[in-house]
Amino acid sequence: MKTGSKINSKELTVVLLIIYLAVLSWIILFKMQFNISLLKNMNFRNVNLVPFSDSLVVNGKIDVSEIILNIAVFIPFGVYMAMIFTKWGFLKKTAPIFGVSLLYEILQYVFAVGASDITDLLGNTLGGIIGIALYYILQKMFKEKTLKILNVLAAFGTVVVVLFLGILVVANM
């Protein structure tokens, strides 16, 4: 791809990753709020170090939807890591996913804006691993076109998610 005035595929991927992480931070840390003063009223600080215990039981019933959502929301992170750091090994690509997830859990505790849960950390990391594996599968299928195809899909997905979140914010005002 030309590098002059046009943005190349890798640069586009980095921009999409930054947007993804900004939206993810807004959802996880700011609970989709624009008014940060509302967060100080939350004052919810909880730590769960027992995997798959509290997060599975809601109102006395087993609920795995939160775990599935944690896995799903981190799949793009794994795909982005595989797209950007093609020469890195599997563990080196997984480490930042784990690190960012751990950082989110720590920040939720520090700012008292949510439960810090080992299950979230495990689910998020698993989602990233699935994303890395998904990239490898797509790489086998599409070869040198993989980056371009995934960037188009990611750009479309980013626009859809940002529009959806925008609609949610406007609808809840």
What is the global morphology? globular
The percent range for helix content is 55-70%
Structural class: mainly alpha
Question: How would you sum up the major sheet?
Answer: 2 strands, parallel
Please state roughly what percent of the residues sit in beta strands, choosing from under 5%, 5-15%, 15-25%, 25-35%, 35-45% or over 45%: 5-15%
Essential attributes:
single chain, 173 residues, mainly alpha, 6 helices
Describe this structure in words.
This protein has 173 residues and is mostly helical. The chain has six helices and four strands. It has helices spanning 9-28, 37-40, 65-84, 90-110, 118-142, 146-171; strands at 44-48, 57-58, 61-62, 113-117. It has a two-stranded parallel sheet with strand order 1-4. Strands 2-3 form a two-stranded antiparallel sheet. Strand 2 and strand 3 form a beta hairpin. Helix 1 (9-28) runs parallel beside helix 6. The radius of gyration is 18 Å and the shape is globular. The relative contact order is 0.17. Mean pLDDT is 86; it is low at 1-5.
